Each structure stands twice: as structure tokens, then as C-alpha cells.
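3.2 Worked example (two chains)
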Amino acid sequence: MADDRRLGYDTLDGNAAGGVLRDLFGTDVTAARSTCAGCLRVAAVGELALYGHQMGTILRCPRCDAVILRLARVRDRYWLDLRGTVSLVIPV
């Protein structure tokens, strides 16, 4: 994999995406459990590796580095791509 800093990404954990995810879902989802479609690892959203960029947010599996979630806000709407997630279980 290329050096993500060279590509303009800042690497953090998934908790850093808590604010924008709360805006989208209306609740805190950092404790939600996500199952990776690549390796089937179950992890809290807050444990995922976050790659922030001007174009949006990318959350990756900490085990296999597969993209779990992509999120971008464009003007008056959000674009959410969960194709790397088998399931997302959000506690109520």
C-alpha cells in the first residue's frame, strides 16, 4: 500500500469520525459493531482505522485493511458506501 500521508490522508481511529457519523445516524455509532466483508473480523466502529481526506472519510478494517465505510458530505447531502461491511449492529 502507498504511504497514506504522502497521498494527503491523516490516519486516526474511528472515534474521530464520531461527529460526522452522529450527524448522519442521529446517534453515537462508535460502539456499533461492524463485520468486515474481507476477513469477517467484528470490530467497533471506533476501533476501525480512519483515513480523513478533503473528499470525505474512509474507515478501514484494522486486520486486513479493507475499506469498510466511505462517507462524504457534498453540499446538502451525504454519500454513504457500506459495501465493505457485512453488517453494522447499532446498540439502542
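3.2.1 Second chain
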Amino acid sequence: NYHVFYYLLAGASEEEKSAFHLKQPDEYHYLNQDCFSVEGEDLKHDFERLQLAMEMVGFLPKTRKQIFSLLSAILHLGNICYKKKTYRDDSIDICNPEVLTIVSELL
């Protein structure tokens, strides 16, 4: 389910938010299609529990960072906008290439 994205957005440190280019949930296409709402403190607590669970099963800090980077990339992928190329029915352009740059950085 999508809860892990909300956990990440609410619980990531400022350093992680910067590294993963994280924004508010309503700025992500995958998350702004619904009216999901949970208190921020609950989400932060759930993120802490998630990190603890990952640590307890043996995920190294580097692995956890890679997982959160991948989750962030997935969120950003949903924000890529496509438009049909003029005079070409078989190809498209990306409207916001800066998002593609972020995704490639996170992957």
C-alpha cells in the first residue's frame, strides 16, 4: 500500500528530505489522487518503527538509504508529464525534464 510513502515524507530528516528531493504529499501525483489523511506525528512514529524493523532484520544503514531513495524515485516518477510530439504520432516529449533528472539521480 501507499502508507510507506507517507511515512517517508513525514518521518525523513531534513537532510534526507533534501537528498531525496522530498516535498509535501499533495505535490505527488501518486498521492494527491485520494483524500488520505493521518496525523503527522502518527506517520513520523510509523516511520521510526519501520526504520527500527529494518534494522532489526539486519538491513544496513546503506541499504535502508537505498530503499528510501528508490521509494522517493517512485514518487517522482509519477510526476513525469508527457506530451505528444508535434507531427509525430509515434513519440512523446517529457514536459518536465527536471523531474527525470531527479529520478535518475535517485536511482
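3.3 Remarks
The radius of gyration is 16 Å.
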